[in-house]
Design brief:
Layout lengths: L1 H38 L3 H12 L4 H6 L4 H20 L3 H20 L4 H4 L3 H27 L14 H10 L3 H8 L5 H13 L10 H25 L2 E2 L5 H5 L7 H10 L8 E2 L4 H16 L3 H20 L5 H17 L24 H21 L2
Helix pairs in contact: 4-10, 4-15, 7-11, 7-13, 7-17, 8-9, 10-14, 10-17, 11-14, 11-16, 14-15, 14-16
Length: 390
């Protein structure tokens, strides 16, 4: 009996040990099967599954809430209007009438907008980001003047740096007429990109996408702020010659003798045309980059996003050919702006669209703040134009 008891006890311990070994093995095998299953999914299926687990809407759900009219508006701004400017050349009264009609259209939709209660939570965020952008731009305005005035070679007319991309582009432009048109053609400009940015911001008034216009412009403003902080720090560290020799003599007066005088000139005069040194990366190139970045983030429409990226490439090339900037300036403008835009995702994540409004819900009544907020939005546009010229 004693021997049998020992044997049974050994069998029981062996069975317990086996079960303990099998437990971790089974768990590891289960995790491996899960990984294999996830790997078998397409990227779209994996993104949808991840969004479902995180509680965020999928890309397909966002696209379903986007309407096509905003994409058509981008086509009008970047295709029809440049065609009219280049080949039809309507009289000035046509453009004034078009602007007046656009403002009336916007005003009507703003006053009949149903979702002001959804926009108000983002107003303070926008105002803080907008104020930060204004402070940075004023500081940069002073720094642009200081780095130009203190350049030890400002009267020496040093030649511009060798730009291999410019050399290659000029070579390609002579090889084929179509390449020559793409490289040298006067297609889009700052006003076209600004028009698309405003279309995206204000199109929430007629429910073209499921995001807050103030939230979108908050991220826009803070991206300009931080990207230009990096830009200012860069051109203050290293002074590079302008692609156009003789810039300082043509555009700036002799600097005062004292530091206080130099700083005072920078404070009292606003300049939207940049300095007389290479500013490391293009300010208007950075602004242009925000157009396609904003659309691919908040309005995932292949036509409009692709058109904006193509326009960005063409205008960047033209800036190099016209010696407004070196090619590295344009490249860095896109890369730095894209990086800052991605870093600032927390300002207004694309995973947080506005909730869908119930069918038949009563419209929010506009109040005195409505016109003020729209005015602030239009002020953003005016500042953006000033910024993009530098």
């Amino acid at each position: 009996m004693y021997v049998m008891s020992i044997i049974n006890d050994m069998r029981r311990r062996k069975a317990e040990g086996s079960s303990k070994k099998d437990g971790p093995y089974d768990e590891e095998r289960t995790q491996m099967l899960k990984r294999e299953g996830a790997a078998s999914h397409t990227p779209q299926q994996a993104a949808t599954a991840a969004a479902a687990v995180a509680g965020a809407p999928s890309l397909a759900a966002i696209q379903a809430r986007c309407r096509p009219q905003l994409g058509w508006a981008v086509g009008v701004v970047f295709l029809l209007l440049p065609f009219l400017q280049a080949y039809v050349q309507p009289p000035e009264i046509f453009w004034k009438a078009l602007l007046a009609a656009s403002l009336l259209f916007l005003g009507y939709h703003v006053m009949t907008f149903k979702r002001w209660s959804d926009e108000f939570p983002y107003v303070l965020r926008f105002l803080v980001c907008f104020a930060a952008m204004i402070v940075e731009l004023l500081w940069e305005n002073v720094m642009v003047w200081i780095v130009s005035a203190t350049d030890m070679r400002k009267y020496d007319d040093p030649p511009g740096l060798q730009d291999n991309a410019e050399i290659a582009l000029n070579f390609l432009a002579g090889k084929h007429a179509l390449l020559g048109w793409f490289i040298n053609g006067k297609w889009a400009n700052i006003m076209h990109f600004l028009g698309c940015v405003l279309c995206l911001a204000f199109s929430v008034a007629w429910e073209q996408h499921p995001y807050s216009g103030f939230g979108v412009m908050a991220r826009f403003s803070l991206t300009i702020c931080f990207s230009r902080i990096l830009r200012t720090a860069s051109f203050m560290c290293t002074v590079l010659p302008s692609p156009r020799p003789g810039c300082y003599r043509r555009r700036f007066p002799p600097p005062p003798d004292s530091w206080t005088g130099i700083i005072w000139v920078g404070i009292r005069e606003l300049r939207g045309f940049g300095g007389c040194n290479d500013l490391i990366f293009s300010g208007h190139g950075a602004f242009w980059s925000l157009g396609p970045l904003m659309f691919q983030t908040y309005y995932p429409n292949k036509f409009s996003t692709s058109l904006l990226w193509i326009a960005l490439v063409q205008t960047s090339i033209r800036d190099v050919i016209d010696k407004q900037h070196y090619s590295v300036d344009m490249l860095l403008a896109v890369v730095v702006t894209w990086a800052v835009w991605s870093w600032l995702r927390w300002v207004y994540p694309e995973s947080q669209p506005l909730p869908q409004r119930p069918e038949g819900a009563a419209a929010d009544k506009p109040n005195a703040l409505v016109l003020t907020l729209v005015g602030v939005g239009l002020l953003t546009a005016a500042v953006a134009v000033f910024v993009a010229k530098s």
